[in-house]
Amino acid sequence: MSQARHSSLDLEPLENCDVEAAYARWAPVYDFVFTAVFRPGRRALAAAASKADGPILDIGVGTGLELPMFEPHTEVYGVDLCEAMLRRAAERVQRNELNHVAGLYKMDATRLGFADACFACVCAPFVLTVAPEPEAMLDEIARVLRPGGEIILVNHVSRNGDPFAIFEHWLDRHVAPKLGWRPQFPWAVIGDWVDQRPDMQLVERRLLAPFNLFTFVRIKRLPTMGAEQVPEARAEPEYA
Questions:
Q1: Which of 22, 104, 112, 204 would staple 239 via disulfide (CB 3.0–4.6 Å)?
Q2: Residue 132 vs residues 93, 94, 203: alpha-carbon distances, Å
Q3: CA separation (Å) from 203 to 165, 174, 200?
């Protein structure tokens, strides 16, 4: 596992305990607050991931807002650090009869309980800014991704020269742990990671609604020879 490298990019420290506590507070109102603003990004992510030829891992599944957006033929596994959020995702799966959801697990995205190279696609909606060690999370995503598979990200990325960046910096310094995410997030976190990985190739990067606040990213793991594996977790799902 790689060591954290985000300190060199002047990102404020964030701990798993901060994230889990914050999202336990957000859980009762998360859908009400974030459904509309995140919907375009979730739809774009689910549409792209649904083209994968094999199982899909949804990291930071939260309350499961994007789970109904995956095509019925898919096989989706969801993980999240916050049990309160996962409980709501499980309720959504049961309520909407989402038979394509194979299981929901409480896991740290930097220490996934899945075998190497077992997913055809790994998607992470709005989660890199939540990760205390985003590069370590990307390393772990790469580990469980099959050669030829894709990483699909939707995330807010700070833009140089944007007046909002000053406000992001202030939020980062003062309220990031309480929010549960890092408002200031430079593209270099993703771009440098891809550049340092000869097995990874940036396929697509584009801005999304609303107001170009979010960035949609597709990264391909370059094909190599080797057998595919089945996504067998090292523990039973908390919710199935």
A1: 104
A2: 28, 31, 25
A3: 26, 35, 9
